[in-house]
Write a structure and sequence with these properties.
The complex is a heterodimer of chains A (255) and B (314).
Chain A lengths: L4 E12 L2 E12 L3 E5 L6 H8 L7 E6 L2 E2 L5 H7 L1 E4 L11 H8 L8 H6 L1 H21 L15 H14 L4 E5 L7 H14 L5 E5 L3 H7 L2 E6 L2 E6 L1 H4 L3 H8 L3
Parallel strand pairs in A: 3-8, 3-9, 6-7, 7-8
Antiparallel strand pairs in A: 1-2, 1-4, 4-5, 9-10
Helix pairs in contact in A: 3-5, 3-6, 5-6
Chain B lengths: L2 H28 L7 H17 L4 H23 L4 H21 L1 H4 L5 E2 L11 H27 L2 H11 L1 H6 L4 H27 L1 E2 L6 H14 L4 H24 L6 H19 L13 H17 L1
The chains are: A alpha/beta (255), B mainly alpha (314).
Bound molecules: adenosine-5'-triphosphate and magnesium ion.
The site of magnesium ion has 4 residues of chain A, from helix 1.
Amino acid sequence: MPEEELLKIEELSKHFGGVYAVSGVSLDVRKGGIWGLVGPNGSGKSTLFNTILGLYRPDGGCIYFNGRKINNLSSHQIYGLGIVNSFQVPRLFFQMSVMDNMLVAARGHQGDGLFNSLFLRGGWQSQERELIDRALEFIELVELGKMVFALAGELSGGQRKLLELARGLMAKPRLLLLDEPAAGVNPVVGKKIFQKLQTLSKNGTTFFVVEHRLEILFNFASWVYVMDRGKMVTQGQPEKIVDDPAFYQAYLGAE
Amino acid sequence: MDLLLYGLDLLVFIGIFGILAISLNLEFGFSGLANFGKVAFFLIGAYTYALLSQIGLPFYLCLISGALVAAIFGLLISLPALRLRADYLAIVVLAFGEILRLIVKSEAWLAGGDWGLSVSPAISITGVSPRVDLLVNIALVFSCLLICFVVAQLLSNSPYGRVIRAIREDEVAAEALGKNRARYKVQIFMLGSAMAGVAGGLYAQYLQAIVPMLFLPIITFTIWIMVLVGGPANNWGVLVGAALVEVFERGANIAKDYIALPIDPSNLQYILFGVLILLVLFYRPQGLFKEIPIKTRALEAVRHAREQIKGEGG
Ligand SMILES: Nc1ncnc2c1ncn2[C@@H]1O[C@H](COP(=O)(O)OP(=O)(O)OP(=O)(O)O)[C@@H](O)[C@H]1O
Ligand SMILES: [Mg+2]
């Protein structure tokens, strides 16, 4: 039985001047599970994610989400469809509390509108209460329970990565792009997070994860894509990919 | 002249500039929009008020119209300007203010040119003392200030306020979290312009005569000083900032009447402004008052519960 297709990318290219950060990349992500994307530094992984997200306009190729072409949508519309990103270098709202960072990400908060925020104050308070409870769950998951009302700018590097991840989860995405979620995070917490992702992936969220710690990623991912110098060089199940010469070549360089 | 009258006059100015400071705080303090053309919307409100009062409209309609016209200009300016980078936005809006003033100055048929317009008082009570007149003005100005302040407070302590602060912090991240930044910015720009329009109307009404000379770019910078000194993203702080700056500014005028100084007091005023800015930048770069975190009923309940648990644990 074929699984349902979620994200489909065809011949995608993105150049920066003469740098072919992504060139002619095609891939599929189907619903459910954890999908991996690996490759050496500068191979174009983050650029690929940012292009999916609508932050960069592709120079060629197509991106489909749930069968709909999303190339020309702006990134708030792409969020609306259910794609959320967790940035490699955390882009937090540093002068705001951890909790407020989480609440910004919440989907469909009635108080987000100008009129409602002024005149329907009764309306969104109860919703805010529920959202806070949900935010607290994720905050506890990433072990920031003691920092709920601290400013995001006061967090350490590792904690910032964790908040970036929690904020992504808060958005209830259908597809969450995670750009090195466990970088700078202590390995025990990193493993715990991947376990949680695995649980969540059974409830409607699909994860597409860039991770340099292959030993963690390969334990959890069901399929892995390998990029090198802007191109997709190979793909497969993690247990097979470790025997793939193209995978070694990407990491060790051309012989 | 009666010192009390000076005091009452000062209060009117604090009220009017308080509104301007609140409105710039919404734009810059909460949303990060560097509006260097504040005076343009102040001017639009003042001239709309004056023109409409000359055809006999009641003062409240003149005020509301001033707000609406300023908001419409805010919309027209922000639509193209918000696509620009923040520094370009600042230049475009700054230029807009000066161009508008020059148009009003040179097109005499439109608004009296250099001679300006005369404005009849909002509520004319004949044959009373200037004191009562000032008190009426204070009541009017402070009612408007109260409304603007409450709106700003409600907005900043709501999910909407959270979104605009997020856009200020990192607009790309906010957009990637589903917030249509252009829409939020336009809304804030319109709202801030409307408030500045109200302040302009009140100003025209109080002075009972307006001329282009009143709307020099220095007004914009005065409002900026109020916000930067008081503390961006703190509505109480910027009110204190407005009061402080106005005390300096009006104080210099009063000093002129009482003491002979070796330099012109209006120049002294700029020197004092300069000193004030330097002091704040050196000792409190975030302004006298810090940003207050968002407060909603739900958030406060959780914060309270957590503090209690901590208290019992310790
Ligand atoms: N905004 C940009 N402007 C110019 N060049 C860029 C930009 N972003 C990325 N690049 C270049 O594109 C290439 C791919 O970079 P990218 O960040 O996508 O790689 P990556 O696979 O995410 O690497 P890493 O593992 O180090 O995060 C690099 O050569 C990089 O220098
Ligand atoms: Mg990267």
